[in-house]
């Protein structure tokens, strides 16, 4: 059995390659599917590189004759500050949510107490609720703390609502850590904190990588909190982009360049560390 | 150690939900003058906001949005499951460069719905983008109004909604009763059968006379939603592909071998061995996609704009009602309805996931 149980989603199964007509059909289908996924990106880049007067509905698909990098400069001028906001927001929220999630996961998996699973299920529910159902009290609460319009209100929201998924990933990860390790440390007289620091934390690096990548992407891409809890100076990039693209008078090169700027960080994370991104993705379906 | 997180989540999830439900039962913001006052006069109005949403003359938009959400969810899930399964089956045959293909199919997942929406808004411009495709083959360009169409199909009268709901739920209960009878579960047969009889009886004798609205009001599937569904499938089908691929790779090679030895054809093997093993994955994908689609609003916001009523969804309406019009009570009511819809999907799932886990432990 052990040879056939995959360790991750990316391990290919040992099925022999077969040649023939079926294989050709297979590649044709793959290419068609890839076109569906890539054509929007082609159009995005082509439009971002056109000069405003070269953008014409009838010639949408043509590659620009003259490459115009100026759109990126302009778009950066409009949303560059928001990119900075998003970066600060995503980094701080991710670190806090990951640390708290790691502690929770440790407590829930290694210090089993009565009702731990029920408590965990109640925590997880927070991951699935539509945030519209908590938005008005959240808005009032952040306002009453004096944090409305500042990035810290947004960080608070992201840390709290990020806890369920980070706890879930760490709990599932720590469940694989042998209990004997913790028991041995207990016999040596180590307590809750020293076990965490000396045994659990050093083992946690792979889980932290998954959580950090996943949470960073989620916070970076979020829109609803961004639109309700901030004002002009602290708006993250998703909101700024929606304002940039929403105006009717703007020519399309600008929102397309802006979309590239807003997408680049998470896209790079995905391309460089896709394996961990996919693990976070699969953990999101609860049973990970 | 756990305590701070538990307290935070108790407040931010359950406390805030309770507060939202309370606000939805008041008239906060229904009088614009009071909405943003420092100490607004807030009166308890019971279910009046809900009554207004479902039957009020001015809330026609909300009712169409509910219908939009149902159609959107249906086609979004079908699209993601179909495309995701197809791609996973192809990749499971080990084409060359598998990693590259997987990267291509999954990358939209890493984008935000706002970015996806911005790109696809441009793809689906009335005279450009996708509508220009046929000109590549020398055909005249398309004219479909992807995001701007005002046509709808499969219309039905809102007044028939209770009737339709009762009939559908009744039939499901009949099916449950029949299934329970087959497995010999007597109490379940009787309970399901009685409920079904009650509902169907109501649908036959009382339902036709129930009128929610003074006049017929038609709602259907707005064609402008098709563009948004395509963009959503583009973004999320990689997720189902990853789920299915993980599932396919988890099927032991011995099982496939055994099926081949038993003389199963390729089709037969998929039909009788592989698809049944993928059923739990399909269910969990449906639940995850379902709750995403009930909550979706940033994609709609970015693609069709917040004011396009033909493509609007309740989640978007809640944001506009609460934070643009400052009608907090009405917004809270919409938020509560969304929560109930999502809870229908999520609670049984969480409950079953953790019941089985306690059983194993």
UniProtKB/TrEMBL annotation, chain A:
Show the Pfam families listed in the entry. BPD_transp_1 (PF00528)
For the biological process aspect of GO, one term held by this record is: transmembrane transport
Q: How does it sit in the membrane?
A: Multi-pass membrane protein
Ranges for the ABC transmembrane type-1 domain?
Answer: 83-273
An example Gene Ontology CC term for this record = plasma membrane
What parts of the sequence cross the membrane?
A: 24-45, 87-107, 119-139, 151-174, 195-214, 256-278
Give the location in the cell: Cell membrane; Membrane
Domain of life, per lineage: Bacteria
Q: Which InterPro entries match?
A: MetI-like, MetI-like_sf
UniProt keyword terms in alphabetical order: Membrane, Transmembrane, Transmembrane helix, Transport
Q: Which family does it belong to?
A: Belongs to the binding-protein-dependent transport system permease family.
Its name, as the record gives it, is Carbohydrate ABC transporter permease
**The species this protein was found in:** Deinococcus metallilatus
TrEMBL record, chain B:
Q: Which domain of life is it from?
A: Bacteria
The record describes its membrane topology as:
Multi-pass membrane protein
Q: Which residues form the ABC transmembrane type-1 domain?
A: 66-351
Enumerate the subcellular locations listed in this protein's record, separating them with semicolons: Cell membrane
Main location group = membrane
The family line of this record is: Belongs to the binding-protein-dependent transport system permease family.
What name appears for this protein in its UniProt entry?
A: Glucose/mannose transport system permease protein
Source organism of the structure: Deinococcus metallilatus
* Taxonomic placement: Bacteria, Thermotogati, Deinococcota, Deinococci, Deinococcales
